[in-house]
Amino acid sequence: MLMVADVPGWAHDHKSRALAHVLAPAFDIVIRHDFAVTPDDIAAADLVLVYYWQQLKYQPAVADACRRRRKTVMVGVCSHYELAPDQRDEGLRLIRECAGRLFANSRLLEREFAPIADLPVHYTPNGVDTGRFTPGSEGEPPPPLRAGWTGNRHIPDAEHRGVDSVLEPAVRGLEGVTLVIADKKAAVRQHADMPAFYRGLHVYVCASRSEGTPNPCLEAAACGLPLVTTRVGNMPEFVVDGVNGWLVDRSPEAFAAALVRLRDDEALRRRMGQAARETSLAWDWRVQAPAYAAMFAEALAS
Q: pTM for this one?
């Protein structure tokens, strides 16, 4: 089983390693990265998984090798912006040429692309390592309320992530609330360092216009943080409004109102954080990986 991740140490690489760990020994998963994977790697694999169609666009020799093995190739759609309207025709055409199956991170993506893909579409949500991402033993940090965000605010563009346009204005002027940003472009953080980052927060916030999952929300919830997020990716599946977080409109006012409630009610904050941790257990990779195994089995049988 060959998985083609984009960049070592990025999200798809971590995901591939998690799947390789959980699905062994039933599947012998080999990981290659963009511009290191070769057509011979494609030819030698029983199954090939590519995370998004642009990996094929920018590696034409790999795309040609996938065309020759089409029935054994699976390509993902991991966020809406990968197949935004201005790229949709090109992306779907290349996927149909190179793959026999499409997999989608969220129900939102599955519902959108299943009717138009002209391929079998599999729902394969991301998971989280709930053994690594755990609440801290010392409890939550002292005031002020620390709302955190991590990622690259400039991919695909600054407005998409909403840090500049939503999160920073939401916190500006709020007494007793601070925004803690771990921007991966400004300072690279190792994945192993992220549990400590989340444990230094009271709440995790996401104001993206679209997402695949997002993975930091799963990690933060596993660390016992309530989530305040827009309705993106898997968040409508994960967040039980008012129980383990809030699904809010994409506006500074909506985020500010949620943060004030959490700032002013410690018991609510703790209760929602505990519920977020409990919810995350159902999203552990040991629970989610079998969806990938089922897709692999269907591909092998086809």
A: 0.96
